[in-house]
Amino acid sequence: MSGSRTITRDDDRLDNVHPGSILREDFLIGGEIPVEEVVEGAGIASERIEAILAEQAPVDANIDLRLARYFGISEGFFLGLQIDFDLEEERRAHGDELARIVTRAA
């Protein structure tokens, strides 16, 4: 994994990593693996994969299934990364509000 994703900020939180970053840095799409190869092999529109790689679009279930099949990994891997990213974005955006919610006693 890239060291750039483990740099802490002033608030001591790790950088929130978009699935596009993982696809670029760990799966080497756009580097050793040309985007065109993924477009053809996984049947993903070039505009869509480019937007994901640019961290401007999310991974959805369809993209996850196609990338999982293409790379020979477990279905849900990329969707899980997207969910983790989205949850952290919401925590950061609404953390104070969420902290005020009182847990209901059973």
Alpha-carbon distance between the termini? 42 Å
CATH domain topology: 434 Repressor (Amino-terminal Domain)
The CATH architecture can be given as: Orthogonal Bundle
* CATH C-level category: Mainly Alpha
Structural features, described:
With 106 residues, this protein is mainly alpha-helical. The protein has one domain (3-99): lambda repressor-like DNA-binding domains (434 Repressor (Amino-terminal Domain), Orthogonal Bundle). The chain is 54% helix and 0% strand. The chain is built from 5 helices and no strands. It has helices at 19-25, 35-42, 46-53, 61-71, 77-99. It starts with 18 loop residues before the first helix and ends in a 7-residue tail after the last helix. The model has no long low-confidence stretch (mean pLDDT 92). InterPro entries: Lambda_DNA-bd_dom_sf, Toxin_antidote_HigA. This is XRE family transcriptional regulator. One of its GO terms (molecular function) is DNA binding. Keywords: DNA-binding. It comes from Sphingobium ummariense RL-3.
